[in-house]
Design goal:
Blueprint lengths: L15 H23 L10 H5 L2 H7 L36
Length: about 100
Protein backbone atom coordinates (compact mmCIF):
# COMPACT_ATOMS: atom_id res chain seq x y z
CA UNK A 1 0.00 0.00 0.00
CA UNK A 2 1.16 3.54 -0.74
CA UNK A 3 2.29 5.70 2.10
CA UNK A 4 0.21 8.80 2.88
CA UNK A 5 2.64 11.76 3.05
CA UNK A 6 -0.03 14.41 3.56
CA UNK A 7 -0.15 13.80 7.30
CA UNK A 8 3.59 14.14 7.84
CA UNK A 9 4.96 17.42 9.15
CA UNK A 10 6.61 19.67 6.60
CA UNK A 11 8.78 21.11 9.38
CA UNK A 12 11.01 18.03 9.28
CA UNK A 13 12.11 18.77 5.71
CA UNK A 14 15.42 20.49 5.33
CA UNK A 15 17.03 22.56 2.59
CA UNK A 16 19.88 20.13 2.48
CA UNK A 17 22.39 20.01 -0.32
CA UNK A 18 20.82 22.58 -2.72
CA UNK A 19 20.79 25.22 0.02
CA UNK A 20 24.41 24.50 0.96
CA UNK A 21 25.48 24.70 -2.69
CA UNK A 22 23.66 28.03 -3.17
CA UNK A 23 25.30 29.52 -0.08
CA UNK A 24 28.76 28.27 -1.17
CA UNK A 25 28.32 29.77 -4.65
CA UNK A 26 27.22 33.11 -3.16
CA UNK A 27 30.18 33.24 -0.78
CA UNK A 28 32.68 32.30 -3.50
CA UNK A 29 31.17 34.90 -5.82
CA UNK A 30 31.53 37.70 -3.27
CA UNK A 31 35.08 36.66 -2.44
CA UNK A 32 35.96 36.51 -6.13
CA UNK A 33 34.65 40.02 -6.70
CA UNK A 34 36.59 41.35 -3.71
CA UNK A 35 39.82 39.71 -4.88
CA UNK A 36 39.49 41.02 -8.43
CA UNK A 37 38.57 44.56 -7.36
CA UNK A 38 41.03 44.94 -4.48
CA UNK A 39 43.87 42.59 -5.39
CA UNK A 40 47.54 43.53 -5.24
CA UNK A 41 47.65 43.94 -9.05
CA UNK A 42 44.98 46.65 -9.01
CA UNK A 43 47.06 49.60 -7.86
CA UNK A 44 46.86 53.21 -9.08
CA UNK A 45 49.17 53.82 -12.00
CA UNK A 46 51.47 56.84 -11.84
CA UNK A 47 51.55 58.82 -15.10
CA UNK A 48 54.18 61.30 -16.22
CA UNK A 49 53.34 64.94 -16.84
CA UNK A 50 53.64 64.44 -20.61
CA UNK A 51 50.97 61.74 -20.60
CA UNK A 52 48.66 63.67 -18.30
CA UNK A 53 48.87 66.92 -20.30
CA UNK A 54 48.33 65.35 -23.72
CA UNK A 55 45.00 65.82 -25.47
CA UNK A 56 42.96 63.69 -27.81
CA UNK A 57 44.19 65.76 -30.75
CA UNK A 58 47.81 65.18 -29.77
CA UNK A 59 47.21 61.44 -29.57
CA UNK A 60 45.47 61.42 -32.95
CA UNK A 61 48.30 63.36 -34.59
CA UNK A 62 50.85 60.98 -33.06
CA UNK A 63 48.93 58.08 -34.62
CA UNK A 64 49.09 59.78 -38.05
CA UNK A 65 45.53 61.13 -38.26
CA UNK A 66 44.61 64.54 -39.62
CA UNK A 67 42.72 66.66 -37.11
CA UNK A 68 40.42 69.29 -38.60
CA UNK A 69 38.18 71.74 -36.72
CA UNK A 70 34.43 71.35 -37.02
CA UNK A 71 32.35 73.88 -38.90
CA UNK A 72 30.88 76.58 -36.67
CA UNK A 73 27.13 76.51 -36.11
CA UNK A 74 24.97 79.29 -37.52
CA UNK A 75 23.73 81.71 -34.92
CA UNK A 76 20.20 81.81 -36.35
CA UNK A 77 18.39 78.83 -37.74
CA UNK A 78 16.87 79.29 -41.21
CA UNK A 79 13.09 79.37 -41.64
CA UNK A 80 11.52 75.96 -41.79
CA UNK A 81 10.31 74.93 -45.25
CA UNK A 82 6.57 74.61 -45.82
CA UNK A 83 3.50 76.74 -45.27
CA UNK A 84 3.20 79.06 -42.31
CA UNK A 85 0.48 78.32 -39.76
CA UNK A 86 -2.71 80.31 -40.26
CA UNK A 87 -3.72 80.48 -36.60
CA UNK A 88 -1.68 80.18 -33.45
CA UNK A 89 -1.94 76.87 -31.64
CA UNK A 90 -3.32 78.53 -28.48
CA UNK A 91 -5.32 81.63 -29.42
CA UNK A 92 -5.53 84.34 -26.81
CA UNK A 93 -8.83 84.54 -24.95
CA UNK A 94 -10.95 87.58 -25.91
CA UNK A 95 -11.00 90.41 -23.39
CA UNK A 96 -14.27 90.77 -21.49
CA UNK A 97 -15.61 93.99 -20.01
CA UNK A 98 -17.96 93.74 -17.04
Amino acid sequence: MARNHSKESHATRRGGIPLAVAIAVAILGVLGILIVDHGPWNKPQVKTAVVVNSTTGDSARDAGATVMPTEPKQRLEPDAPGPKPVQPANPAAPAQDF
